[in-house]
Specification:
The complex is a heterotrimer. By secondary structure, chain B is an all-alpha fold. Chain B has helices at about 10-30, 35-55, 60-95, 100-115, 120-130, 135-160, 165-170, 175-210, 220-225, 230-260. By secondary structure, chain C is α/β, with parallel strands linked by helices. Classes of the chains: A mainly alpha, B mainly alpha, C alpha/beta.
Chain lengths: ~260, ~270, ~260
C-alpha cells in the first residue's frame, strides 16, 4: 500500500456556497414567476389565437403600411450610431487611464459612461418621449445614449491597453499632451473604433425595431398598434420583413468589418 | 528626389466608407426632420426631466409598489438565463463541428441563428396571448432568446478546445461519451459558465424593459409613472433599477473573473 | 508481441506516410524509432492502436488483429496500450488525479464516470501510478499549474494506470529541456525494465536514442531503412536514415 496519499482539498468557497445558492435561487425564481406546468398546458390550448393568423400573413398590407416605418427605423439607427459613436470618441480618451492622468476627471467620465450603460435602451426611449415628445427624435436620442455608452466602454478599454511608446516619443519631441494623443494614441485605436462602430450599428438596428413600442418612432409603432388588436396576421409579415432587413444589414456590416480589419 | 505616390486604391476604400457614412447620416437626419439644434438642445430637456424626478418619491406606498416589481425583473432574468443555460448546453455540442456531424451541426447552427434574430420583446408579445400578462411570458421570451445567443457562443467555445486530451482518452480505450465528459466538458465549462453569468447581466436589462408590453418586471411601472407625469415616482423606479443592475453587474463580473482565473486550493 | 504486416498508410490527399512496413516487436522490448519529421514515425505509432487506420496490411498486438477488430474489441485492445504524447494531452483545467483516472475510463460504467463515482480500487490504482513517477503529492493540483516535465510524468501515470502491456510514446520529450527530457526518458526506461512493459518511443534526438534505447529502427519517407541494436548504430547509419549529414539540432546535447 502506498503511503502519503495527499488529502483531498476542500472544495472552494465559490462552489460550496455558489452552486447550492444558484440552485435554490433558481427554484425560488421559478416559483415567484408562477411557473406551473398545468396552467402552461391549458394556456397552450390558446395558441391558435397567435398561430392561426401567424401562418396567414397579410403580405400586401404589411408592405404597404410598414415600408415607410421600416425606413424610419433604419434612419434612426444610422443617425444614432454615427452621432453616439462620435460623441464617445473624445469621451473615451478622458475615460482611460492611459490618456487621462487626472484621477478625478478619469473617475468622473468612467462613472458617467457606466451610469448611461446601466439604463436599458427602452428606458432611455421612454424618458426622451417625455422630455422631447413622441416620435423618432426621442428614439434617436435614446439610441445615441445607448451607442455612446457601449462605444465609451469598448474604446476606453482599448485605449487602456495601447502601446505607450509612440505617445512617449511624441512627447519627447516636445509635443503637448493633446498632440500626443492626436498623433499617437488615436491612430492606434482607429481600426478598433471602426470595427466597434459597425458592431454598434448592428446593435442599433436591432434596438431601433422595438423603440416604437414606447412611441419613439420606427416600425415598432405599427407592431404595437396591430398587437393591441391581436392582428398577428399583419404582424407576422412585418416581423419577417424586419428580420430580412436586419440580417441583410448585418451581413453587409460583417463583410465591411472583415474588409477593414 | 522622387516622392512615392500613395496608391489610390488604399484611400479610395477609406473615402468611400466615409462618404457612405456622411451621406447616409444626412439622409437619415433629413428624413427624420432632425436638426443639429434639436440634438444640442436635448441634454437641457432631459436635464429638466431628471430634475423633476428629485426629490425621489420614497413613500411606503411607492416603495411597496415598485420594489416587488424590481425583484420580479431579477427573477425573470435569472429564470430566463437558467432556461437558456439548460437548453443551450446540450445544443451547443450538436452545433459544434468537432462534436457533431457536419449535417447536424449546420442545421443546429441555422436554428440558433433564427432564434437569435428575434428580440426578446417581439418574442414576448407573440407569447402574450398564449401565456397571458405577467412574468411567465417575460421569462419565456428571455429564455428562448438566451438559448439562441448562448447556444452560438457555447458552440464556439466547444469548437475552440484542445483536441489532444480527446486523443488520449480514445487511445486508452475510452468511448465517445467518455471523450465528451472527460475531454470536452472540463475544458469548456469555466468559459461557458462565465457566459451564462454574462448573459444574466444582459437579461436583467432586457427583463427590465419587458414590462412595456406587459410581460412582467419593472418596465410597466416606469412607463405608467411617466405617462401620468408622476416624475418623482418614475425617478424612484429608475434609481432602484440602476442600483439593482449595478449591483448584479459588479457581483457577476467578480465571479466571472474568478471562474476564468480558476482559483483552486493549493495543496 | 506486436506485429506489423505489410502496413501501408496513404492519407486523404495522397500523401504516402508508410510504405509496406514489416516489423515485429518482442515482449519487453524498448524500441526507439528515429527519423525526420514526416518520415512516418507518428503514423506507425498510431497504427499500433488504430488511431490511424492502415490503408493496407494488418497490425497484431498480443496476437489480436487490431486492424479488423470490432469497435468493442478495439476498445479492449486499446485499454491494454498506454500512450504518451508530445504535447502531454492533459485537460489543463482538471486536477492531476482526474487526468490520471481518464486512463481507467474503459473499466467503469459511463454512469459512474459522469458522476465521478470512482470505486476505491480504481482511485488507488491512479495513486499508485502517480507514485511510480514520484508525483503523488500533486494529485489534487490542477494540471495547468505543473511544469512541462511534471505534466509529462502525469501523462506517463495516466498511461500506467491502464496497467498496459504496451506503452507507446510519441515524441515524449520534444517539448522539454535536456534535463527534464532525461528524467522523463529514465522513467520510461524504468517502467520497461521493472514492469516488463513493451515500449515503443518516437524520438528525433539521436544521442537520447543511443543513451536509452535497446533496439532502434529508422524510418525514411515511410520506409523502414534500419533495424538493429542501438549499440551497433554508426554515424553513417544515422546519415542514411536522415538522408543528410547529422546537425547539432539532431542532438539534445548535454544538460546545461
Amino acid at each position: 500500500m502506498i503511503k502519503n496519499i495527499p488529502k483531498k482539498p476542500l472544495p472552494t468557497l465559490l462552489s460550496t456556497i455558489g452552486i447550492p445558492f444558484a440552485i435554490v435561487f433558481s427554484i425560488y425564481s421559478f416559483l415567484q414567476i408562477g411557473f406551473n406546468l398545468e396552467d402552461f398546458r391549458k394556456n397552450l390550448q390558446n395558441r391558435y389565437i397567435v398561430t392561426d393568423p401567424l401562418f396567414n400573413p397579410k403580405w400586401s398590407w404589411a408592405i404597404e403600411n410598414a415600408s415607410a416605418a421600416l425606413v424610419e427605423t433604419i434612419q434612426i439607427a444610422i443617425l444614432a450610431s454615427v452621432v453616439g459613436c462620435f460623441i464617445a470618441l473624445p469621451l473615451s480618451f478622458y475615460a482611460s487611464r492611459a490618456t487621462n492622468k487626472n484621477s478625478f476627471s478619469y473617475f468622473l467620465y468612467k462613472s458617467f459612461l457606466n451610469l448611461v450603460r446601466t439604463i436599458p435602451d427602452l428606458f432611455w426611449a421612454m424618458m426622451f418621449t417625455v422630455a422631447v415628445g413622441l416620435g423618432p427624435f426621442a428614439g434617436v436620442l435614446a439610441l445615441i445614449m445607448f451607442s455612446l455608452a457601449i462605444m465609451g466602454k469598448l474604446l476606453s478599454e482599448t485605449i487602456d491597453s495601447i502601446d505607450p511608446g509612440p505617445m512617449e516619443a511624441a512627447k519627447a519631441t516636445g509635443g503637448s499632451h493633446n498632440q500626443a494623443i492626436f498623433t499617437s494614441a488615436l491612430p492606434q485605436v482607429l481600426p478598433n473604433f471602426t470595427a466597434y462602430f459597425l458592431y454598434i450599428f448592428e446593435l442599433c438596428i436591432r434596438a431601433s425595431v422595438i423603440l416604437g413600442l414606447v412611441g419613439a418612432g420606427g416600425v415598432g409603432r405599427i407592431i404595437e398598434t396591430q398587437r393591441i388588436f391581436l392582428r398577428f396576421d399583419r404582424i407576422s409579415p412585418i416581423v419577417v420583413l424586419i428580420l430580412v432587413v436586419v440580417i441583410g444589414i448585418e451581413q453587409f456590416s460583417v463583410w465591411l468589418r472583415r474588409k477593414i480589419l | 528626389m522622387k516622392i512615392p505616390q500613395q496608391p489610390w486604391q488604399q484611400n479610395a476604400f477609406k473615402y468611400g466608407i466615409t462618404f457612405l457614412i456622411v451621406v447616409s447620416s444626412i439622409w437619415s437626419a433629413s428624413g427624420l426632420e432632425i436638426t443639429l439644434e434639436r440634438i444640442i438642445d436635448a441634454p437641457r430637456q432631459i436635464g429638466i426631466l431628471v430634475g423633476a424626478m428629485f426629490p425621489l418619491d420614497l413613500s411606503d406606498e411607492a416603495l411597496d409598489r415598485i420594489i416587488p416589481k424590481v425583484w420580479e425583473s431579477l427573477f425573470i432574468a435569472w429564470a430566463g438565463t437558467v432556461i437558456g443555460a439548460l437548453f443551450s448546453f446540450p445544443i451547443s455540442f450538436l452545433a459544434a463541428n468537432n462534436t457533431s456531424t457536419p449535417f447536424i451541426s449546420r442545421i443546429t447552427k441555422q436554428i440558433l441563428n433564427a432564434i437569435r434574430a428575434f428580440p426578446e420583446l417581439i418574442l414576448a408579445f407573440v407569447f402574450l396571448p398564449i401565456t397571458g400578462l405577467g412574468p411567465l411570458t417575460g421569462t419565456l421570451a428571455v429564455g428562448i432568446h438566451s438559448i439562441g445567443t448562448l447556444g452560438k457562443l457555447s458552440s464556439e467555445v466547444v469548437e475552440g478546445i484542445d483536441e489532444g486530451p480527446l486523443e488520449a482518452i480514445k487511445a486508452s480505450g475510452g468511448s465517445k461519451l467518455n471523450e465528451l465528459t472527460f475531454g470536452v466538458i472540463p475544458q469548456v465549462i469555466p468559459t461557458i459558465t462565465s457566459y451564462w453569468l454574462y448573459r444574466f447581466e444582459i437579461n436583467l436589462r432586457a427583463s427590465a424593459v419587458l414590462g412595456v408590453v406587459g410581460a412582467g418586471g419593472v418596465g410597466a411601472e416606469l412607463i405608467n409613472q411617466l405617462r401620468f407625469r408622476d416624475f418623482p415616482r418614475a425617478g424612484t423606479v429608475l434609481i432602484t433599477t440602476i442600483i439593482l443592475v449595478l449591483t448584479v453587474d459588479t457581483i457577476s463580473a467578480a465571479i466571472r473573473k474568478r471562474i476564468i482565473q480558476g482559483k483552486i486550493n493549493k495543496t | 508481441m506486436i506485429k506489423f504486416e505489410n502496413i501501408s498508410v496513404t492519407y486523404p490527399g495522397g500523401v504516402e506516410a508508410l510504405k509496406d512496413i514489416n516489423l515485429e516487436v518482442n515482449e519487453g522490448d524498448f524500441l526507439i524509432i528515429v527519423g525526420l519529421s514526416g518520415a512516418g514515425k507518428s503514423t506507425l505509432l498510431r497504427a499500433t492502436n488504430n488511431l490511424v487506420k492502415p490503408t493496407k496490411g494488418n497490425v497484431y498486438v498480443d496476437s489480436r488483429n487490431v486492424t479488423t477488430a470490432s469497435k468493442k474489441e478495439l476498445k479492449e485492445i486499446r485499454s491494454d496500450i498506454g500512450m504518451i504524447f508530445q504535447t502531454f494531452n492533459l485537460v489543463n483545467r482538471s486536477t492531476v488525479l482526474k487526468n490520471v483516472l481518464t486512463g481507467r475510463l474503459s473499466q467503469i460504467s459511463s454512469l459512474r464516470s459522469i458522476f465521478g463515482l470512482w470505486p476505491k480500487d480504481q482511485k488507488n490504482l491512479a495513486f499508485e501510478s502517480l507514485n511510480q513517477v514520484e508525483i503523488l503529492e500533486k494529485a489534487y493540483v490542477r494540471a495547468s499549474n505543473l511544469s512541462g516535465g511534471q505534466q509529462q510524468r502525469v501523462g506517463i501515470a495516466r498511461a500506467l494506470s491502464q496497467k498496459p502491456k504496451v506503452m507507446l510514446a510519441d515524441e515524449p520529450v520534444a517539448s522539454l529541456d535536456p534535463i527534464t527530457s532525461r528524467v522523463v526518458m529514465s522513467y520510461l526506461k524504468k517502467i520497461n525494465t521493472e514492469l516488463g512493459i513493451t515500449t515503443i518511443v518516437n524520438l528525433h534526438f539521436l544521442d537520447l536514442a543511443k543513451e536509452f534505447g535497446d533496439r532502434l529502427i529508422g524510418l525514411r519517407d515511410g520506409e523502414l531503412v534500419y533495424d538493429g541494436k542501438v549499440s551497433d548504430v554508426s554515424d553513417e547509419d544515422f546519415e542514411n536514415i536522415y538522408g543528410r549529414s547529422i546537425k547539432s539540432s539532431d542532438l539534445i546535447g548535454e544538460d546545461d
